[in-house]
Design goal:
Elements: H1 15-21, H2 49-56, H3 71-84, E1 88-92, H4 95-104, E2 112-116, H5 121-131, E3 137-141, H6 146-156, E4 160-164, H7 176-185, E5 189-193, E6 211-215, E7 229-233, H8 235-248, H9 254-265, H10 267-286, E8 291-295, H11 305-312, E9 320-325, H12 330-339, E10 355-357, H13 369-374, E11 381-385, H14 391-405
Parallel strand pairs: 2-3, 2-4, 4-5, 5-6
Antiparallel strand pairs: 1-7, 6-7, 8-9, 9-11, 10-11
The structure holds pyridoxal-5'-phosphate.
Length: 407
Protein backbone atom coordinates (compact mmCIF):
# COMPACT_ATOMS: atom_id res chain seq x y z
CA UNK A 1 0.00 0.00 0.00
CA UNK A 2 3.02 2.26 0.09
CA UNK A 3 2.70 5.09 -2.39
CA UNK A 4 5.07 4.27 -5.20
CA UNK A 5 5.73 7.86 -5.96
CA UNK A 6 4.56 11.32 -5.17
CA UNK A 7 5.55 12.70 -8.51
CA UNK A 8 4.43 11.67 -12.02
CA UNK A 9 7.77 12.60 -13.52
CA UNK A 10 9.76 10.38 -11.17
CA UNK A 11 10.09 7.46 -13.59
CA UNK A 12 12.29 9.54 -15.85
CA UNK A 13 14.48 10.90 -13.07
CA UNK A 14 17.89 9.55 -12.16
CA UNK A 15 18.46 6.60 -9.84
CA UNK A 16 19.90 8.76 -7.04
CA UNK A 17 16.85 11.02 -7.10
CA UNK A 18 14.49 8.05 -7.14
CA UNK A 19 16.41 6.39 -4.28
CA UNK A 20 15.82 9.47 -2.13
CA UNK A 21 12.19 10.30 -2.98
CA UNK A 22 10.34 7.18 -4.09
CA UNK A 23 7.79 5.89 -1.58
CA UNK A 24 8.05 8.95 0.65
CA UNK A 25 5.31 11.38 1.58
CA UNK A 26 2.14 9.50 0.62
CA UNK A 27 -0.50 12.19 0.23
CA UNK A 28 -3.11 10.47 2.42
CA UNK A 29 -2.10 7.34 4.32
CA UNK A 30 -4.67 4.64 3.56
CA UNK A 31 -4.17 2.98 6.94
CA UNK A 32 -4.52 3.85 10.59
CA UNK A 33 -2.24 2.00 13.04
CA UNK A 34 -3.75 1.24 16.44
CA UNK A 35 -0.82 2.85 18.25
CA UNK A 36 0.83 6.20 17.59
CA UNK A 37 3.75 5.61 15.20
CA UNK A 38 7.22 7.03 15.69
CA UNK A 39 7.42 10.10 13.48
CA UNK A 40 11.16 10.62 13.06
CA UNK A 41 10.76 13.31 10.39
CA UNK A 42 12.45 16.58 11.26
CA UNK A 43 10.29 18.49 8.75
CA UNK A 44 6.68 18.39 7.51
CA UNK A 45 5.39 19.26 4.08
CA UNK A 46 2.15 20.96 2.98
CA UNK A 47 0.70 21.01 -0.51
CA UNK A 48 -0.74 24.43 0.16
CA UNK A 49 1.98 26.97 0.94
CA UNK A 50 -0.53 29.19 2.73
CA UNK A 51 -1.21 26.37 5.20
CA UNK A 52 2.54 26.04 5.71
CA UNK A 53 2.75 29.78 6.27
CA UNK A 54 0.06 29.48 8.98
CA UNK A 55 1.91 26.56 10.54
CA UNK A 56 5.13 28.56 10.70
CA UNK A 57 3.21 31.46 12.20
CA UNK A 58 2.40 29.23 15.18
CA UNK A 59 -0.73 27.23 14.36
CA UNK A 60 -0.43 24.58 17.10
CA UNK A 61 -2.45 21.99 15.21
CA UNK A 62 0.22 21.78 12.51
CA UNK A 63 3.76 20.43 12.56
CA UNK A 64 6.58 22.05 10.63
CA UNK A 65 9.81 21.13 12.37
CA UNK A 66 10.41 18.63 15.17
CA UNK A 67 12.23 21.11 17.42
CA UNK A 68 8.94 23.07 17.50
CA UNK A 69 6.70 20.04 17.95
CA UNK A 70 6.36 16.40 16.91
CA UNK A 71 3.27 14.16 16.65
CA UNK A 72 4.79 11.26 18.65
CA UNK A 73 5.90 13.63 21.41
CA UNK A 74 2.48 15.32 21.35
CA UNK A 75 0.78 11.96 21.98
CA UNK A 76 2.98 11.42 25.02
CA UNK A 77 2.38 14.97 26.24
CA UNK A 78 -1.35 14.47 25.92
CA UNK A 79 -1.42 11.33 28.05
CA UNK A 80 0.90 12.72 30.74
CA UNK A 81 -1.15 15.93 31.04
CA UNK A 82 -4.28 13.81 31.25
CA UNK A 83 -2.84 11.63 34.03
CA UNK A 84 -1.46 14.63 35.94
CA UNK A 85 -4.72 16.56 35.58
CA UNK A 86 -3.11 19.56 33.92
CA UNK A 87 -4.12 21.39 30.74
CA UNK A 88 -0.92 20.42 28.96
CA UNK A 89 2.59 19.09 29.29
CA UNK A 90 5.88 19.32 27.42
CA UNK A 91 8.63 16.74 26.99
CA UNK A 92 12.37 17.35 27.41
CA UNK A 93 15.57 15.46 26.67
CA UNK A 94 16.11 14.46 30.32
CA UNK A 95 14.74 15.05 33.79
CA UNK A 96 17.39 17.71 34.35
CA UNK A 97 16.46 19.46 31.10
CA UNK A 98 12.84 19.54 32.36
CA UNK A 99 13.90 20.83 35.80
CA UNK A 100 16.08 23.52 34.22
CA UNK A 101 13.37 24.62 31.79
CA UNK A 102 10.71 24.77 34.51
CA UNK A 103 12.95 26.92 36.72
CA UNK A 104 14.21 29.12 33.87
CA UNK A 105 10.72 29.88 32.65
CA UNK A 106 9.62 31.01 36.13
CA UNK A 107 12.40 33.41 37.09
CA UNK A 108 14.39 36.37 35.80
CA UNK A 109 17.61 38.06 36.95
CA UNK A 110 16.91 39.42 40.43
CA UNK A 111 14.39 36.68 41.30
CA UNK A 112 14.51 34.66 44.50
CA UNK A 113 13.90 30.93 44.71
CA UNK A 114 13.03 29.15 47.94
CA UNK A 115 14.01 25.49 47.80
CA UNK A 116 13.95 22.59 50.20
CA UNK A 117 17.29 21.50 51.69
CA UNK A 118 16.78 17.89 50.61
CA UNK A 119 16.75 18.50 46.83
CA UNK A 120 18.07 16.07 44.23
CA UNK A 121 21.80 16.86 44.04
CA UNK A 122 21.91 18.06 40.45
CA UNK A 123 18.86 20.30 40.90
CA UNK A 124 20.65 21.88 43.83
CA UNK A 125 23.86 22.20 41.78
CA UNK A 126 21.91 23.83 38.93
CA UNK A 127 20.47 26.43 41.32
CA UNK A 128 23.86 27.01 42.91
CA UNK A 129 26.08 26.96 39.81
CA UNK A 130 23.85 28.07 36.93
CA UNK A 131 21.08 30.23 38.28
CA UNK A 132 23.34 32.15 40.68
CA UNK A 133 25.50 33.34 37.79
CA UNK A 134 22.32 34.50 36.06
CA UNK A 135 21.45 36.73 39.04
CA UNK A 136 18.91 34.41 40.70
CA UNK A 137 19.28 33.87 44.45
CA UNK A 138 18.33 30.59 46.07
CA UNK A 139 17.46 30.34 49.76
CA UNK A 140 17.19 26.94 51.42
CA UNK A 141 14.86 25.79 54.17
CA UNK A 142 13.65 22.44 55.47
CA UNK A 143 10.16 22.12 53.92
CA UNK A 144 9.27 19.43 56.46
CA UNK A 145 9.28 22.23 59.02
CA UNK A 146 6.18 24.18 57.97
CA UNK A 147 6.71 26.97 60.52
CA UNK A 148 10.23 27.58 59.25
CA UNK A 149 8.94 27.44 55.66
CA UNK A 150 6.19 29.98 56.39
CA UNK A 151 8.78 32.23 58.04
CA UNK A 152 11.16 31.88 55.07
CA UNK A 153 8.38 32.72 52.60
CA UNK A 154 7.62 35.86 54.62
CA UNK A 155 11.30 36.83 54.81
CA UNK A 156 12.33 36.18 51.20
CA UNK A 157 9.09 36.68 49.21
CA UNK A 158 10.22 34.05 46.69
CA UNK A 159 9.14 34.15 43.04
CA UNK A 160 9.46 30.39 42.82
CA UNK A 161 9.29 27.52 45.31
CA UNK A 162 11.10 24.30 44.38
CA UNK A 163 10.38 21.03 46.15
CA UNK A 164 10.07 17.28 45.75
CA UNK A 165 7.24 14.97 46.83
CA UNK A 166 9.48 12.33 48.45
CA UNK A 167 13.02 13.20 49.48
CA UNK A 168 16.02 11.11 48.56
CA UNK A 169 17.27 8.92 50.23
CA UNK A 170 15.36 9.19 53.52
CA UNK A 171 11.91 9.06 51.85
CA UNK A 172 10.40 11.94 53.80
CA UNK A 173 7.09 13.09 52.32
CA UNK A 174 6.63 16.82 51.72
CA UNK A 175 3.27 18.28 52.67
CA UNK A 176 2.68 19.63 49.16
CA UNK A 177 -0.86 20.98 49.85
CA UNK A 178 0.48 23.04 52.78
CA UNK A 179 3.50 24.30 50.79
CA UNK A 180 1.22 25.25 47.87
CA UNK A 181 -1.15 27.09 50.17
CA UNK A 182 1.68 29.08 51.77
CA UNK A 183 3.36 29.74 48.42
CA UNK A 184 0.21 30.74 46.56
CA UNK A 185 -0.82 33.14 49.34
CA UNK A 186 2.54 34.86 48.87
CA UNK A 187 2.23 34.97 45.06
CA UNK A 188 4.98 32.43 44.39
CA UNK A 189 4.93 29.85 41.62
CA UNK A 190 5.33 26.29 42.88
CA UNK A 191 7.44 23.69 41.11
CA UNK A 192 7.11 20.11 42.35
CA UNK A 193 9.53 17.43 41.20
CA UNK A 194 7.22 14.42 41.38
CA UNK A 195 9.68 11.85 40.00
CA UNK A 196 9.28 9.52 43.03
CA UNK A 197 5.46 9.77 42.89
CA UNK A 198 3.96 9.13 39.46
CA UNK A 199 0.39 10.39 38.94
CA UNK A 200 -1.19 7.04 39.89
CA UNK A 201 0.04 7.78 43.41
CA UNK A 202 -0.14 11.55 43.67
CA UNK A 203 -1.00 14.58 41.48
CA UNK A 204 0.62 17.78 42.80
CA UNK A 205 -1.37 20.04 40.43
CA UNK A 206 -4.60 19.00 42.21
CA UNK A 207 -3.15 20.55 45.35
CA UNK A 208 -1.99 23.78 43.70
CA UNK A 209 1.40 23.14 42.06
CA UNK A 210 1.97 25.27 38.94
CA UNK A 211 4.66 23.06 37.43
CA UNK A 212 4.90 19.29 37.92
CA UNK A 213 8.22 17.84 36.78
CA UNK A 214 9.18 14.22 36.16
CA UNK A 215 12.38 12.55 35.23
CA UNK A 216 10.65 10.17 32.78
CA UNK A 217 13.84 8.14 32.92
CA UNK A 218 12.28 6.69 36.07
CA UNK A 219 8.69 5.47 36.61
CA UNK A 220 6.89 7.02 33.63
CA UNK A 221 8.99 5.20 31.03
CA UNK A 222 9.88 2.53 33.58
CA UNK A 223 12.10 0.10 31.70
CA UNK A 224 15.56 1.60 32.07
CA UNK A 225 15.81 2.33 28.36
CA UNK A 226 14.80 5.98 28.05
CA UNK A 227 16.31 9.26 29.19
CA UNK A 228 13.68 11.97 29.25
CA UNK A 229 11.82 14.54 31.28
CA UNK A 230 8.44 16.22 31.22
CA UNK A 231 6.73 19.27 32.74
CA UNK A 232 2.95 19.14 33.27
CA UNK A 233 1.46 22.60 33.58
CA UNK A 234 -1.02 25.20 32.35
CA UNK A 235 -1.35 26.13 28.65
CA UNK A 236 0.22 29.53 29.25
CA UNK A 237 3.24 28.11 31.04
CA UNK A 238 3.57 25.41 28.38
CA UNK A 239 3.82 28.14 25.75
CA UNK A 240 6.68 29.74 27.71
CA UNK A 241 8.40 26.36 28.04
CA UNK A 242 7.88 25.66 24.35
CA UNK A 243 9.42 29.03 23.43
CA UNK A 244 12.36 28.16 25.70
CA UNK A 245 12.76 24.68 24.17
CA UNK A 246 12.74 26.17 20.67
CA UNK A 247 15.74 28.32 21.51
CA UNK A 248 17.50 25.97 23.91
CA UNK A 249 16.88 22.86 21.80
CA UNK A 250 16.58 20.48 24.77
CA UNK A 251 13.58 18.69 23.24
CA UNK A 252 12.65 15.05 23.68
CA UNK A 253 13.49 12.94 20.63
CA UNK A 254 10.61 11.11 18.91
CA UNK A 255 12.09 7.65 19.58
CA UNK A 256 12.38 8.39 23.30
CA UNK A 257 8.88 9.90 23.28
CA UNK A 258 7.54 6.71 21.73
CA UNK A 259 9.28 4.48 24.29
CA UNK A 260 7.97 6.65 27.12
CA UNK A 261 4.48 6.60 25.58
CA UNK A 262 4.59 2.81 25.52
CA UNK A 263 5.91 2.76 29.10
CA UNK A 264 3.12 5.01 30.39
CA UNK A 265 0.49 2.53 29.18
CA UNK A 266 1.59 0.00 31.82
CA UNK A 267 2.41 2.56 34.53
CA UNK A 268 -0.69 1.84 36.67
CA UNK A 269 -0.06 -1.93 36.55
CA UNK A 270 3.67 -1.64 37.15
CA UNK A 271 3.37 0.88 39.93
CA UNK A 272 0.64 -1.03 41.76
CA UNK A 273 2.89 -4.09 41.80
CA UNK A 274 5.90 -2.01 42.85
CA UNK A 275 3.98 -0.44 45.77
CA UNK A 276 2.67 -3.84 46.91
CA UNK A 277 6.16 -5.34 46.68
CA UNK A 278 7.71 -2.36 48.49
CA UNK A 279 5.38 -2.76 51.45
CA UNK A 280 6.24 -6.47 51.76
CA UNK A 281 9.96 -5.77 51.36
CA UNK A 282 9.90 -2.91 53.90
CA UNK A 283 8.18 -5.15 56.47
CA UNK A 284 10.66 -7.97 55.85
CA UNK A 285 13.60 -5.56 56.22
CA UNK A 286 12.07 -4.14 59.39
CA UNK A 287 12.04 -7.63 60.91
CA UNK A 288 15.52 -8.57 59.67
CA UNK A 289 18.17 -9.03 62.39
CA UNK A 290 20.89 -7.54 60.18
CA UNK A 291 18.95 -4.34 59.47
CA UNK A 292 18.87 -1.23 61.65
CA UNK A 293 16.51 1.49 60.44
CA UNK A 294 14.04 1.18 57.54
CA UNK A 295 12.90 4.38 55.81
CA UNK A 296 9.61 3.72 54.02
CA UNK A 297 6.58 6.02 54.37
CA UNK A 298 4.30 2.96 54.41
CA UNK A 299 5.67 1.88 57.77
CA UNK A 300 3.92 3.35 60.80
CA UNK A 301 7.36 4.00 62.33
CA UNK A 302 8.31 6.44 59.53
CA UNK A 303 8.14 10.12 60.46
CA UNK A 304 6.15 10.90 57.29
CA UNK A 305 3.63 8.06 57.57
CA UNK A 306 0.66 10.28 58.44
CA UNK A 307 1.47 12.81 55.68
CA UNK A 308 1.86 9.97 53.18
CA UNK A 309 -1.46 8.48 54.26
CA UNK A 310 -3.21 11.81 53.74
CA UNK A 311 -1.57 12.65 50.39
CA UNK A 312 -1.62 9.20 48.80
CA UNK A 313 -5.06 8.30 50.15
CA UNK A 314 -4.85 4.50 50.03
CA UNK A 315 -3.16 4.31 46.62
CA UNK A 316 0.10 3.01 48.11
CA UNK A 317 3.26 4.52 49.58
CA UNK A 318 5.62 4.46 46.63
CA UNK A 319 8.31 1.93 45.88
CA UNK A 320 11.46 3.58 47.21
CA UNK A 321 13.02 2.32 50.44
CA UNK A 322 16.26 3.02 52.25
CA UNK A 323 17.67 1.05 55.17
CA UNK A 324 20.77 0.71 57.28
CA UNK A 325 22.77 -2.48 57.50
CA UNK A 326 23.54 -2.82 61.22
CA UNK A 327 27.01 -1.49 62.13
CA UNK A 328 28.09 -1.67 58.49
CA UNK A 329 31.23 0.06 57.23
CA UNK A 330 31.75 1.11 53.63
CA UNK A 331 33.48 -2.21 52.99
CA UNK A 332 30.51 -4.12 54.40
CA UNK A 333 28.13 -2.25 52.11
CA UNK A 334 30.38 -3.02 49.14
CA UNK A 335 30.14 -6.72 50.18
CA UNK A 336 26.33 -6.38 50.23
CA UNK A 337 26.25 -4.83 46.75
CA UNK A 338 28.56 -7.50 45.34
CA UNK A 339 26.51 -10.28 46.93
CA UNK A 340 23.25 -9.23 45.25
CA UNK A 341 22.16 -11.88 42.75
CA UNK A 342 18.82 -10.56 41.50
CA UNK A 343 18.68 -6.91 42.51
CA UNK A 344 20.78 -4.77 40.19
CA UNK A 345 23.45 -2.76 42.04
CA UNK A 346 23.14 0.36 39.90
CA UNK A 347 22.06 3.96 40.03
CA UNK A 348 18.62 5.26 38.95
CA UNK A 349 15.19 4.09 40.10
CA UNK A 350 11.69 3.32 38.95
CA UNK A 351 12.57 0.48 36.60
CA UNK A 352 10.76 -2.85 36.31
CA UNK A 353 13.74 -4.52 37.96
CA UNK A 354 14.84 -3.79 41.51
CA UNK A 355 17.88 -1.58 41.88
CA UNK A 356 20.05 -0.91 44.91
CA UNK A 357 22.28 2.13 45.28
CA UNK A 358 24.76 3.27 47.91
CA UNK A 359 24.16 6.99 48.61
CA UNK A 360 27.61 7.43 50.20
CA UNK A 361 29.14 6.27 46.92
CA UNK A 362 26.65 7.91 44.53
CA UNK A 363 24.13 10.69 45.26
CA UNK A 364 25.88 11.96 48.41
CA UNK A 365 29.45 11.19 47.42
CA UNK A 366 30.64 14.79 47.63
CA UNK A 367 29.17 15.36 51.10
CA UNK A 368 31.62 14.70 53.99
CA UNK A 369 30.65 11.80 56.30
CA UNK A 370 30.25 14.16 59.27
CA UNK A 371 27.66 16.27 57.38
CA UNK A 372 25.94 13.21 55.98
CA UNK A 373 25.61 11.58 59.39
CA UNK A 374 23.95 14.73 60.77
CA UNK A 375 21.10 14.29 58.28
CA UNK A 376 20.86 10.51 58.67
CA UNK A 377 22.88 9.41 55.65
CA UNK A 378 25.67 7.40 57.24
CA UNK A 379 28.02 4.88 55.65
CA UNK A 380 25.59 2.12 56.63
CA UNK A 381 22.64 3.40 54.53
CA UNK A 382 21.57 1.76 51.25
CA UNK A 383 18.74 2.65 48.89
CA UNK A 384 16.40 0.27 47.15
CA UNK A 385 14.10 0.89 44.19
CA UNK A 386 11.63 -1.98 44.27
CA UNK A 387 10.75 -3.57 40.93
CA UNK A 388 7.95 -5.79 39.67
CA UNK A 389 9.62 -9.15 40.37
CA UNK A 390 8.06 -11.59 42.85
CA UNK A 391 8.35 -9.96 46.27
CA UNK A 392 9.62 -13.20 47.86
CA UNK A 393 12.55 -13.31 45.44
CA UNK A 394 13.50 -9.69 46.23
CA UNK A 395 13.30 -10.43 49.97
CA UNK A 396 15.39 -13.59 49.62
CA UNK A 397 18.07 -11.76 47.65
CA UNK A 398 18.22 -8.96 50.22
CA UNK A 399 18.42 -11.48 53.06
CA UNK A 400 21.39 -13.36 51.63
CA UNK A 401 23.22 -10.16 50.61
CA UNK A 402 22.73 -8.51 54.01
CA UNK A 403 24.06 -11.68 55.69
CA UNK A 404 27.17 -11.51 53.51
CA UNK A 405 27.76 -7.80 54.22
CA UNK A 406 29.68 -8.37 57.45
CA UNK A 407 31.96 -11.23 56.43
C1 LIG B 1 14.16 13.52 41.83
C2 LIG B 1 14.94 13.60 40.56
N1 LIG B 1 14.76 14.66 39.75
C3 LIG B 1 15.44 14.79 38.59
C4 LIG B 1 16.35 13.84 38.20
C5 LIG B 1 17.11 14.02 36.91
O1 LIG B 1 16.62 13.15 35.94
P1 LIG B 1 17.47 12.70 34.64
O2 LIG B 1 18.55 11.79 35.13
O3 LIG B 1 16.47 12.04 33.76
O4 LIG B 1 18.04 13.93 34.04
C6 LIG B 1 16.57 12.72 39.01
C7 LIG B 1 17.54 11.69 38.60
O5 LIG B 1 17.89 10.80 39.34
C8 LIG B 1 15.84 12.59 40.22
O6 LIG B 1 16.01 11.54 41.04
Amino acid sequence: MTAETNNKKSAVRGLATRAVHTGERPAQPQFRPTVTPIYPGSTYVYDDVEVMDAALAGDDSKYVYTRYGNPTTSALEEVVANLEGTASSIGFASGMAAVHAAIFSSVAPGSTILATRDLYGHTFASLRDHFTTWGVTTELVDFLDLNATAEAIKTYSPDLIVCETITNPLMKVTDIPAICELGRAAGAAILVDSTFTPPVLYRPADDGAHLVVHSMTKYLAGHGDVTGGIVATTRMRRQQLSDYAKLNGSILGPFEAWLALRGVKTLPLRFRQQCENAMKVAKALDAHPGVGLVNYPGLKSHASHETAKRLFDGRGYGAMISFTIKDATKEDVFNYLEALNLIVPATSLGDIYSLSLYPAMASHRSMPLEDREKIGIGDDLVRLSVGIEDADDIIEDLDQAIRKARR
